[in-house]
Amino acid sequence: MSKKDFFPSEQHKELHNELHKDFYLTCEKYFIFELLTVAAGMMGLYTYNVRGGVFSNAQTGNVVKMSLAVGTGNFKATLYFFVPFLAYIAGTILSEILPEKVKHSYFIRWDTMLVGIEIVALFIVGFIPFSWPDQIVQVIICFLCSMQFNTFRQAEGVPMATTFVTNHVRQIGISIARAIKHHEQEPEARKKAIRHEKIIFAFFFGGVVMTRACSYFGEKSIWLAIIPLSICFIFLLRSDLIYEKAMLDLKPHGH
After folding, report:
1. Which of 38, 166, 187, 191 has its CA 20 to 30 A from that of 146?
2. CA 164 to CA 36: how far, in whole Å?
3. Of 4, 14, 34, which is closest to residue 205 (Cα–Cα)?
4. Over 70: is that where the pLDDT of 247 sits?
C-alpha cells in the first residue's frame, strides 16, 4: 500500500472539513480524556510521593514553592523547583512544533504518537533507581505532562484539561450558577457539570491508586500509569489505521 493511500484527496479534505464541524475524532472522545486523566493523576502523585516532592502534572504548586524558597533566601531550592518548570515549558514548545511534522511524515496522528511516547518513557522511568537524582525523573514526567496537556484540549467540544483539576472545579461552579439563573438550561448545565466531576474523580482515583502503589512497588509503581495509557493507545492507533485513516489531516477542535 502506497503512502498516498493513507492521505485524503482534496475532495475528501473538503468533505471532512465540513463533517468535522459536528464530528469528533477518537482523540477527542470523552473516555480518552478520562483515561489520560487517570494516568496524569498517577504521574503527579508519583513525582510528589517518591521523586522529590515536585508536582509534575501542573506547575502552580512548583511556582508557589519557588516563591517560598526565594522569600526565605533558599536559592538552591529555588533552582530545584525551577528545573521542572522549564521542562514543562519545553514540553509545550515541542508539542506545538511536532504535530505538523508528524502529520506529513507518518501514518498516525501526533496524539497517538504522544501516548506511545509516554508509555515507553514511563516504562524506562520504572528502571531508574531512587539512588539517582530525582530531577531526572521530574524532568521526564513534567515534559510528558506538558505535552499531554497541550495536545488534548477539548473532549467532544468541551474544553478539558487532562493533567490538573482547577479548571474543572471552576466549570462545575459555572454550571451550577447557570442552572440557578436560567432554569431552562438546567439539563445541559447538569450534564456538563457531571462530565467535569467525572474528570476530577478520574484524577483523584489515579492519585489514590498511585499513593498506595508507591508503598509497595517503589520506583516501578509508575508502570501502573501505563495501563490507562495503553488502552488509549489501542483505541487511537486502531482509529488512525482503520476508521480515521482518511482524516489524518484534520486537527482536533481547539487547535
Report:
1. 191
2. 11
3. 34
4. yes
DSSP H/E element including 79: helix 75-103
Quick one: pLDDT band at residue 236, thresholds 50, 70, 90? very high
Q: What are phi and psi of 158, to 5 degrees?
A: -105, 125
Rg of the chain over all Cα atoms, to the nearest angstrom: 20
Residues 6+ apart with CB under 8 A from 25: 109, 239, 244, 247, 250, 252
- The architecture (CATH level 2) of 28-156+203-247 comes to Up-down Bundle (1.20)
Average pLDDT of the segment spanning 226-241: 97
Q: In the chain, where are the structural domains located?
A: 28-156+203-247
CB-based contacts of 84, cutoff 8 Å, min separation 6:
54, 55, 56, 59, 62, 135, 138, 139, 142
For 155, phi and psi rounded to 5 degrees?
-105, 105
**What's the Cα-to-Cα distance from 124 to each of 100, 141, 210, rounded to whole Å?**
27, 11, 17
Q: 24-60, pLDDT tens digit by residue?
A: 999 999 999 999 999 999 999 999 999 999 999 999 9
Report yes or no: 206 and 39 within 8 Å, Cβ to Cβ. yes
Mean pLDDT of the chain: 90
